[in-house]
Amino acid sequence: MNLKDHFINTVADELNHLNGSEFESLCRPVIEILTDREFELKGHNLEMKPVRGSVDLIQDDDCGIIGQCGTDKDYLTGDKAISDIDGSLKNSPNFHTIYLFCNRRATGPEFQTLDKIVSTKLNSIKRVHAEYKYHIYDSQRIAKILYDNIYKAFKVEEILSYLPKSREYYLSLPKPHSLPKQKYGYKLRQEEKEIENKLSKIDFLQIYGLSGMGKTQLAIAVANNLACKFDTILWLDGESLESGSLENVIVPRMGSSVNLAYLLNRFKVLVIVDNLNTNVQDLMDQFSHCSQNGSKCMVTSLQRNVDKNKSYNLLYLSEKESKEILYDCLIRPTEEELKQVLKNVSGFPLLLELSKKAVENEELSWADIASISNMTEINDGEKNEVFARRIVGRYVDRFKDMFNLLIGLDDTRISKTFLREKNIFDYNALLSASIIEDTGEYVCKIHSVVLSAIKTVMDARYSRNDFLQYLGDYLSAHVMSRNAGLYTFSGIHRRLILELINKTDLENKLRKIIVLSYIYSIDTYSAPQSFIALIDSVSLNPEDSDMDLRLFIELLELEHRKYLTENNDAEFLKEWGFKKI
Length: 581
What we know:
By secondary structure, this protein is α/β, with parallel strands linked by helices. Helices cover 52% and strands 11% of the residues. Helix 16 crosses helix 20 (448-458).
């Protein structure tokens, strides 16, 4: 409840600071949530400034439902609302339902007064419809709509792109997609109860073991089991803590940061840090210092970094559990084949899953699996890598283009849209083969062992030019519409974008696309000078290219923002704007 109240109050406060253009753009997805219909934004001129007397939001089929947005300080007194209704009657006389949005918080008496004024006005209109309907939303009601529809991730995250403080709370709220999806076919493991019992007695636990032992899947299962006992859950990747500070921790789902130290101080949080192999002791110390309300932290790692009483060594699956995985195959092995496979790879969940899927997809037979799994001369620490190469090698010709993208991204977390738009059939086939896993609304994942195997078997067949060509085409398509395909890719693959921006050998057109993608997907308010320098690093011809024109507009706004810290609008237009135009 504390998180809910903080979220709603922060949204209401930030709405009050938006200008007219920002508020109208924000209200479009709000009214779409309320009506489950698509709307067009009509209240702007060519410079994206609000036009007085126009209709701001219009339903895109019959214009029967409309929306008006007000940021005037006196909106709640009713004069501006009446003006909006008059403008609606003039410009969209066929409307039957009107939504009035105000970015200010109404008191009880103000709300009742405005409701009465609007009702009287609509009742006085010469009837076109049997009944006019109206809905009034102040900032607090808008905030409540966001909270109640938190599962509508695309719409809510579009709205919160205008509200950076609220977004931080949003990332911490309990949501159906807070945790990665459990891997399809996951089998209950006896270690779940052991870990839950241990975690009930201590606040910090490191789960460690060989790569491919199922640490991540086990952590997801335990987190799902314990979720109801906490205010919220945060799933983090090990790289999220590279800064070393809990005050600026990246939530990998969208590449945004939260102040984990503050959350631990105020709320009961279950934190899971997956694949953290350095600074584990430092994390434990910081966590213990910040946690005030019974929060818990689980970490998965390759090796133990803390005291034994704070750790859990995840070992091999039992023979019974291994058999259950293989017997779950659509094509069951014979007793002899089962015996041979279990002899060589029993206990390794990753290897068993790859084997089963290769047989189901008819890439290999159980006899083939028994043959290539014969690794008696290889130690356990190397079995995952060697066996994964033997399996993945069978897919190279079939998935050459998709493997090329996976190598180019060089990340275990991958934008689903990026892969799906390349080839939806191959994407689904990769899922079916357990090469990748579907872990969320925007993200799929590849095990580090499998990615390493792909790099090895592709070897000289990898084409960086082919990867960059597709990357440019993808970003170019999504940057023009500024849709979820852009923001999710930029959030998930921020490291790649930054690396490419710093490359000196990129073709100029691709560099422009990447720079614009980066600027569109990050907060440029705090340091406009650095982004001005970034745009200045590419040559622009705004009269010849839509991409260049967009960069020029961003440059103009950044220069404006920088200049206004010391001067005013008139001086800016005189000294920079008119001259540049």
